[in-house]
Design goal:
- The protein is an alpha/beta fold and 406 residues long.
- It folds into 2 domains: 37 residues, no CATH class; 301 residues, Aldolase class I (TIM Barrel, Alpha-Beta Barrel).
- Helices cover 40% and strands 11% of the residues.
- It has 15 helices and 12 strands.
- Strands 7-6-5-4-11-10-9-8 form an 8-stranded parallel sheet.
- The N and C termini lie far apart (66 Å).
């Protein structure tokens, strides 16, 4: 009897034996085709759709899913805990109605251009920061930057980039890039992070405080039921430090310490504009302005932080009222359609940020896919604005919508 058969006989559990059998099958030519089962079969589809056949952002998601490993999909798709906030972010758009206009305007007459923190924008749409794009597509962050520039959109680069900012920043001449980072307690290390951006010519920088403490339960289920039990809920290339000794139960040791004194110190390090990402209440919005921020980003990290929190769309109006025009208010989380963008703008956002959807586009079709997805959202927004009788950005206001938050 061979050694492996002897080990099966002495297996401490049926599960261990099944895992070994699975490993044997995965290594064989027969098992290679089913080593990673597809939990979302295409059903009646007989071929993959081409880029030209994409009609909405939702069409990109299954192509993205088919193109990447399960771990990369999980990192992009999942949210914190039970994913209540992830779902609520999407549901909230159903609770805002766009009022029909008796005087619609031709789409050709709609001009939604504006200027935001020194950047001239053709549309109030920004590519949000998201980690590790090379696992999505070999062009990675460089590809996303080229796509956003071609679509006349500002791009925000994540500090957890899989391509150094010094390589990304010069890749799209004429583009506009802003930089994101997570607070680190060492001011010396903070300065190094900020210097890396500023040395590359990226001067509008923002700390993110909405990613407080997350546990991606569905990601862990996929991982552990596959037999590879690991601690931490970080997705492929997420880039954050693993939980330390202070993280006994789910909470990363690098979170939950942020202070306004730290924000004061960061403000002195940034040469350009300073934004702060993750504001979910009017009181914090007022404090952020008092501490010198130039713009506020209303965000719950796309439902990836603090399960059972509010959707961003629900809290946007009260934050806008508290800010009272003193600084721009940006908005993200849950956007999938041009109508979603219109609703956020109507409730007071000066611009919106899209994250997951741009990842779908890049992973599905590379640079052309990311560009096409951004342009589709831009044109959807124009069509909605035209139907609502809004010829310019300032026409999109609270009189154009009716809220029914529950």
């Amino acid at each position: 009897m061979s050694d492996i058969e002897q080990s099966w006989l002495a297996s401490p559990s049926r599960r261990a034996a099944l895992l070994r059998l699975s490993a044997l099958m995965a290594a064989s030519p027969i098992g290679a085709a089913v080593a990673q089962p597809d939990p979302k079969p295409l059903g009646q589809h007989r071929r993959a759709l081409t880029l030209a056949e994409m009609q909405t952002s939702f069409d990109f998601e299954p192509v993205f899913f088919a193109n990447v490993p399960q771990s990369v999909y999980d990192y992009t798709a999942h949210g914190d805990g039970s994913e209540f906030t992830l779902r609520r972010n999407r549901q909230a758009y159903d609770w805002v109605d766009i009022k029909a206009s008796r005087a619609p305007v031709p789409a050709s007459q709609v001009d939604l251009s504006s200027e935001l923190l020194g950047a001239k924008m053709k549309y109030p749409i920004i590519v949000a920061p998201s980690a590790a794009m090379v696992p999505l597509h070999p062009d990675g962050e460089i590809g996303m930057y080229k796509a956003s520039t071609a679509a006349s959109a500002v791009m925000m680069l994540s500090i957890n980039t899989s391509t150094p900012v010094a390589q990304v920043a010069p890749a799209a001449p004429g583009g506009t890039m802003w930089g994101q980072f997570y607070p680190v307690e060492s001011l010396a290390n903070t300065q190094r992070l900020i210097d890396a951006y500023q040395n590359a010519g990226v001067n509008n920088i923002f700390p993110t405080v909405d990613q407080q403490a997350s546990n991606y339960e569905r990601t862990n289920q996929d991982r552990n039921l596959g037999g590879n039990v690991r601690g931490g809920a970080r997705g492929a290339g997420a880039g954050a430090a693993a939980p330390t000794g202070s993280a006994r139960y789910r909470i990363n040791g690098g979170r939950l310490w942020y202070t306004w004194e730290y924000i004061d110190a960061v403000r002195k390090m940034i040469k350009g504009k300073m934004l702060i990402k993750g504001i979910l209440g009017p009181e914090d919005a007022k404090l952020a302005i008092d501490h010198g921020v130039d713009a506020i980003i209303v965000s719950n990290h796309g439902g990836r932080s603090m399960d059972y929190g509010p959707s961003t769309l629900e809290v946007l109006p009260e934050i806008v009222a508290a800010v009272n025009g003193r600084v721009p208010v940006l908005f993200d989380s849950g956007i999938r359609r041009g109508a979603d963008i219109f609703k956020a703008l109507a409730l007071g956002a000066n611009a919106v940020m899209i994250g997951r959807t741009t990842r779908w586009g890049l992973a599905a079709y590379g640079i052309p896919g990311a560009q096409r997805l951004i342009e589709m959202l831009q044109q959807e927004l124009v069509q909605v604005a035209a139907a609502a009788g809004c010829a310019k950005l300032s026409d999109i206001n609270k009189t154009t919508v009716k809220t029914n938050f529950v």
